Known about the structure:
Layout: H1 7-10, H2 18-28, E1 37-40, H3 50-65, E2 69-74, H4 84-96, E3 105-107, H5 112-124, E4 128-131, H6 135-140, H7 159-170, E5 180-183, E6 198-202, E7 216-218, H8 220-230, E8 235-239, H9 246-256, E9 262-266, H10 278-286, H11 301-307, H12 311-321, H13 332-346, E10 348-350, E11 352-353, E12 356-361, E13 370-375, E14 385-390, E15 393-397, E16 417-420, E17 425-433, E18 440-447, E19 465-466, E20 469-470, E21 475-482, E22 509-516, E23 533-536, E24 540-544, E25 553-560, H14 566-569
Parallel strand pairs: 1-2, 2-3, 8-9, 10-23, 12-18, 16-19, 21-25
Antiparallel strand pairs: 4-5, 5-6, 6-7, 11-22, 12-15, 13-14, 15-20, 16-17, 17-18, 21-22, 23-24, 24-25
Helix pairs in contact: 3-12, 8-9, 12-13
Bound molecules: adenosine-5'-triphosphate and magnesium ion.
Adenosine-5'-triphosphate binds at residues 41-43, 51-52, 54-55, 238-239, 268-269, 276, 278.
Amino acid sequence: MEDLKTPEEEKPVRSLNFIEEIIEEDIRNGLNESRVHTRFPPEPNGYLHIGHAKSICLNFGLGKRYNGKTNLRFDDTNPVKEDVEYVDSIMEDVKWLGFDWEDRLYYASDYFEQLYQYAVTLIRKEKAYVCDMSAEEMSETRGTPTRSGKESPYRSRSAEENIDLFARMRAGEFPDGSKVLRARIDMASPNMHMRDPVLYRILHAYHHRTGNQWCIYPMYDFAHGQSDSIERITHSICTLEFEVHRPLYDWFIREIGIYAPRQIEFARLNMTYTVMSKRKLLELVREGNVSGWDDPRMPTICGLRRRGFTPESIRNFAETIGVAKRDNIIDVSLLEFCIREDLNRRASRLMAVMNPVKVVIDNYPDDLVEEMEAVNNPEDESKGKRAMPFSKTLLIEREDFMEDPPNKFFRLAPGREVRLKAAYIIKCESVVKDLKTGEIEEIHCTYDPQTKSGMPESNRKVKGTLHWVSEKHAVKAEVRLYDRLFTKENPDDLAEGETYKDYLNSDSLKVITAMIEPAILNERELIPGVSDKFQFERIGYFSLDKDTSPGNLVFNRVVPLKDSWAKTEKVK
Ligand code: ATP
Ligand code: MG
């Protein structure tokens, strides 16, 4: 596992967030012998996304901060939507983020027998009953927030009859949907969750862990709080929508008579230009709008990983946004800022040309190849230098040349000079165009041998500095340029009749062929996920994709660069 020391841990101490304040208060009061024990409780019905990452960082972060423990628990109560594929991916993602549940991996399905017994306890106390109403009848009699519901005609069944019926439900005597077990609370409660909620349903479905052992399954609400109680979680941290469920969870704990965790709600993470619901992400995958859960445009952890995000950048993002009590939406550019900051420190620099045009140095010897010295990472001297071959025919970005430029264009133009980074100052003498299209085919230049970079006499200053590669030495690579997946800042905020898919960005992926300096081939371990992240100078951060095969390099653009070589970048 990677070194866990992250920038946030080097930053000055920040003030406590509201959850830490509650926890510190509980520690001072000696609640639960001052233990801190949290959990991350995903339902294995999809891949994790950046919102989950926030919850992971929060829960595991608190465990670490207070010398406590954090469990990983799969809330696997819905066999129809769950799958081991998701279980495996979730474990991989939590580990990759840099967290460790040690020997505390749990499944709500491990508690099915215990939960069944809890239900029997409630039945014995006449706090639960078997109801034969159909789903439609139940929803019809539930009432509305302002109008009481109607009590079920089965509500007065005796405890004995209910225990018998519940046992026969478990034994498989009844078909799906024919009966449910309901709590007996209050059909007039202003809180709809308290109106005799369903605790168990009949579902003759294969479960990825318990197989065909069960044909009744507890509802999420009946499993979640009790699972926390069984694991003696001290602080059950969940998102705001569970605030209204809290009275129900408290009721279960009290009526069953078991240990009570403290539930604390925080605002879920929303991010601009993306959707975060697992249902929608699954839909994008199924309908082929993206190439899979790990498509680099997805907000999933595996998508971000494939795109080239680092665990450090995501942890730093989670720390920076903090925790809020009210729903909000975070600008995706903050996440981009975090990865830029991290890769600026760690990524090796290389020169690569995305949209090449030929530069011929007329006064340079035809067959000469010089080795220029280029710095691998100006932020980290220990990364050293590399050699870049320089020859008569070079490639530069087409955008770095203008035939008829405005005054403030500090790049190449007829009669003007620029420095080729780590090499010479060149001057544009003439251009060769395609006679039919008028497109520039070659830019003819002369170089000044006195200006070789690093030489004492090379101090002559010019305003522009360009990146370049030597044409005959450059290596071809497929480069995938990503843009936001949606064109709308909040694709969940829709008018009547719209769907979030109306706002899919049709230009979110552009594939180009770039020319990269040959040092890319010297990278000892050019393996996705290992030594795979680079800054292509003046362009952005790029990460080797898993589609790379021998002789065929594939890169993802992680983020474009900003603020680099600011002088040349001002003109656009
Ligand atoms: P669903 O809406 O399908 O229930 P979910 O996003 O709540 O999905 P879970 O697997 O239940 O998914 O989530 C696991 C944990 O992650 C929960 O504790 C939940 O509170 C937290 N979580 C989920 N989405 C976010 C988010 N956007 N921001 C912060 N935490 C989140
Ligand atoms: Mg959930």
